[in-house]
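DM from R.C. (forwarded with permission)

"hey, sorry to bug you on a friday — could you get me a structure for this? deadline for the figure draft is monday and I only need the backbone to look sensible"
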Amino acid sequence: MPQRQLARISAIAALGVAAVALLVVLASAGSPYVIHAEFSDAGQLVRGDLVTVGGHQVGSVGKISLTPNGLADVELAVSDQSLAPLRRGAIATIGELSLTGEANRFVSLNPGPGAPIPSGGTLPEAQTRGIVDLDTLLDSLTPRVRGALDGFLESGAYLAPAASQTAGLVRQVAADDGSLSQLVSSTAQVASALALPTTEL
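My reply, with the result:
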């Protein structure tokens, strides 16, 4: 085989290898890193909810399904490649953006130490935290505790106007130097009179 033909075949083979390598890189760059998080309760998560780290969006919630043992299997697609792969010590927590609305949940990731979790791997239930629903929490209280809590909240409603009036009085007195001096002087006279023995009064 002539040397020129051999060089041509080698060049074509090298181009083929380079093209395959480029396709692999492009395919891996285009596919997000996905893990499954197992929750005892998905807490009204829906597809498309945010996945965050430190309050910044790094991905989104994908498919939500049920595992054979009754847990919620939540797909977390992490688009921020600087976080991939997550480690075995990572924690996934369901949070709430606000008290109103239906699609107001998100999953917060707390990266941890340990061996890397490959794409498609799973965070077990021990490393996930569901959301604490306020209604569920109140329903778990005994009637006596709920009554005491209601009484405390009502007393706070009555105390709020009194606190507001006291703050207004303090601001008014502080704004008037003459009133402030008179108040201090009167308070000192009353304190002195109370300190005297009863025989001197």
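R.C.: lifesaver. Confidence is low (pLDDT under 50) at residues 17-29.
me: no worries. The longest strand covers residues 56-66.
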